Amino acid sequence: MPLPRFDRLPPETRAAVLAVARSHFARDGKDAASFNRIIAEAGISKTSAYHYFDGKDDLFAAVAADTAARALAALGPWEDAATERRFWEQLTDGTARLSAHLRDHPDDRAVLAAAGSAGDDGAGDDGGWTARLVENGLRIGLIDPLADRELLTAATRALLDAADAWALARPSLPASRTAETLRTLLTRLWTAPRP
């Protein structure tokens, strides 16, 4: 992640540097992107760049984290649903918003796909969104209450991460198909087996 000096830059300067880097990483890929070209286009000197980042991998981690935050903002916060029907509607609506964001911002899609395939931790923090989803599902009886919550949340997060990677690799996949697949997988994960 960026060094503390980067956080002291004005927000518009940070956003501009990350936007340039996002464009390069999306176009050229993480490995082929040139740190020197990125910083030159961003208008910062090599000396300054090393005051902000430890190198290209560090810059990529910052871009991945920023891009994940942009995607999470498009998804929107998880609002407690009072009914099973509203729960699934909210998940479907969020999937549609996220799909639209990624369609309209292909650089975000490319960076998130690269971060996921590289196992980058920068894109993995959902700010508690998954925990709120699971807690809501437990509260309304959608999720088997006998499962360990910590394990259930981790398993749900892993499933969501896998579904994200699957959808990111398929840009033309309709949001409705993604939402339907997600609902099927989550239902199977959350429901106690029938004897």
From TrEMBL:
Name the Gene Ontology molecular function terms of this record: DNA-binding transcription factor activity; transcription cis-regulatory region binding
Residues in the DNA-binding region annotation: 34-53
Pfam families attached to this UniProt entry: TetR_N
Alphabetical list of Gene3D superfamilies matching this protein: Tetracycline Repressor, domain 2 (1.10.357.10)
The HTH tetR-type domain covers 11-71
Keywords annotated in UniProt? DNA-binding, Transcription, Transcription regulation
Q: What is this protein called?
A: TetR/AcrR family transcriptional regulator
